[in-house]
Amino acid sequence: MSEQSFRNRLRESAKLGLRTRLSRNGLAIGRDPFSNRLARSLDHAGIDSVLDIGANVGQYAKLLRAAGFEGRIVSLEPLSGAYAVLERRASGDPLWLTLNKGAGSEECLALINVSENSFSSSLLDVTETHLGIAPHSRVVGTEKVHLTTVEQLLVDENIDAATCLLKVDTQGYESEVFAGAGDRLREFAAIQVELSLVELYRGQKLYDELVAELRELGFVLWAFETGIADQHGRLLQVDGVFLRHDLIP
Length: 249
Description:
The chain contains 8 helices and 10 strands. By secondary structure, it is of the alpha/beta class. The protein has a single domain (34-247), classed as Rossmann fold (3-Layer(aba) Sandwich), CATH 3.40.50. A 7-stranded mixed β-sheet has the order 3-2-1-7-8-10-9, with helices on both faces. Strands 4-6-5 form a 3-stranded mixed β-sheet. 37% of the residues are buried. Residues 12-20 and 22-28 have low confidence and may be disordered.
């Protein structure tokens, strides 16, 4: 065996060992992370802004920035605790605007269920299925929050939907966010939305309903990112990225 072949074998053995150790702890590594693929997709579609609905503490925007996205980001987070962290994270980025609001079908005040882990908080009730696979999603309180609409945000923040990605991560409330966009939903260059295959929040629309709705509006499924699974390996949730049909090569 040549010295180069020996080095290659050592390198592959080390990578396999690392993947095995990560897998035992429910973690993984890959050659092409989803955030990198998403950034390339935004570049392909000429997208220069992101409307980040359900930002929590800014994890999504931070990943986009790390992947090289340099455009404008408008992040909405209704919970006061999570928003304080989000605002601090965005403070040194002049192209990252934060708003202490949620989004729904109309402008109003609403009561949100606050989960122990913060990011599972929802305007809907958590189901037993969700609690079974994620006990930290249990509700520990409620908070009164301000909801706006996507249609109003486009006006207030001077967002050009034709060059914008609408990202919706609202824990079962996605259909209400879409309703609040009205006819302007079809104008977005791309939409990224959390899709549940089983009911994790009571009354939410599931994967097939939301995909059919977006298809009817002229969006084509472009990419998937796998989400949570149960103890048996059943996939319960994914993120879907949809591009407007005229942007498909």
